[in-house]
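Quick check before the chapter quiz. The format below is the same one you will see on the exam, so make sure you can read both the input and the output lines.
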Amino acid sequence: MDLHLLFEAIGFVLLVVIGIPGNVFILLQFTCLRIIEKKLLPANIILMVLALVNLLVILSRSIPQSLKAIGLENVLDDTQCKFVIYTYRVSRAMCICVTSLLSCHQCVLISPTTRMGVYLKQRVTRNVSNIIFIIWLINLIIYPYSSSIAVARGNFTTSPYTLHLMYCDIDFLNYVSYTLNGSFLASRDFIFVGLMTLASTYIVYVLLRHEKTIKDIRSSDRAKGRSVEYKASRAVILLVVMYALLFGLDNCMWIYTLTLSNVTPDMNDARIVLACSYSSLSPIVIIATNSKLQKKVKCSQRTNPLPWTSRNTYEKKDHLYSISK
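Here is the expected output.
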């Protein structure tokens, strides 16, 4: 195997190995919490949906790309190509929309308790599920075109305005369609990244302002409540920064490809790595910063101790029992 293909295969396999267990863990734990506690916090609902769309991104893009990197050819036919491309486009769009919603939701939560602030908190927290449903519906309606022109790779000639993606080709036929599609995707991403940036900037401003006044607060309960608020806000900021870096580079490369008539497969592969990295790495941030998930991880570690720990424990018990006799 070529060295380039070997590194590419290792990279995509690592994204799959890291991303799928992390996102599945988040989905399962939040589902269990919903069943046991009969409710989920709005922020946890958003994180649950984010884990779901991250999982769809990995399944629709990282896994096929991994199969291609290890040398498997002609895995998808035309219908499967259309389905995979459509799933990826909708999932990627949902990824940026849900991350933006998460930052805006946290921005509303930490806003001052004015009349408008209280109104927004009530409206947003009560309608998070409806907002997510509307976002899903919009993205499902927007993306049928680019997936409808996707075909499996074959021995036929394509136009210079073709995106070569894993086993599929998306031929836009002319420069106008190619640039319009690319400009729409890039503009949408930059708008949502801008919205995330504004929300995160406001969150940072509020945190810094509270940091100056927190020294004057003597109540331990209020300090504890604010520390939880701070942790949630910092987690959101970390996710937004990660998204802005990875997808910012992806969009910069995408804009550059709009100036080219023939895009090399290596350029597309680099963009795919950046696009899939967020879906694979964000579960680590979510688990590390979410108190509910951390408790589940600690409980699982306690209920499933390491074999050598259990064996040493039993040996110590037997030894003490023999001494007592």
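If your answer matched, good. The longest strand covers residues 162-165.
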